[in-house]
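Thread: "does anyone have the structure for this chain?"

Original post by V.I.:
We have the sequence but no experimental structure in hand. Need at least a predicted one for the grant figures.
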Amino acid sequence: MFYTLFDFPIGKIFFAKTSKGLSFASFVKDHSRLDEITDFFKKRNILLDYDESKFRLEYKLFNNYFKGKKVSFASLPIDFISGTPFQRKVWLETGKIPHGKTETYKSIAQKLNQRGYRSIGQALSQNPILIIIPCHRVIGSDGTLVGFGPGLEIKEYLLRLERGEVSA
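Reply from O.Q.:
Generated one for you, tokens below.
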């Protein structure tokens, strides 16, 4: 599996991909987060090989996204290397939320015929491909920002960026 780190306005993003597509995109705030990410791959006996040149499309798309442009990630192949069938179902449903829009955990649960919406939050907490699987667009039923691993300040930044409230 190939990996790289790119700098963006809100910090570094760690990307990893197989020959089939992108498998991992995560914010890296500090060295301990980088250790967590590499441990994720070690536990699965996945060797990482640094190669920035394999990520030209990802860099282009993410760079445009952080410039405030409405970006479709549909052209980017995805290869889920983790996740239960239920988690993948939640991730794919979340991927349908349009740029600049939000949905609630409850509304996603209803779309998937799930009784409880906490299972949706638990599935999204394991989302391996941030921004592309836009779990930052999922909010509480009362409109509050809740439940985002990289931090609520990043969630707020991404939502504001998508609404055009952040100058690129």
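V.I.: this helps a lot. The mean pLDDT is 93.
O.Q.: and The chain is about 35% helix and 15% strand.
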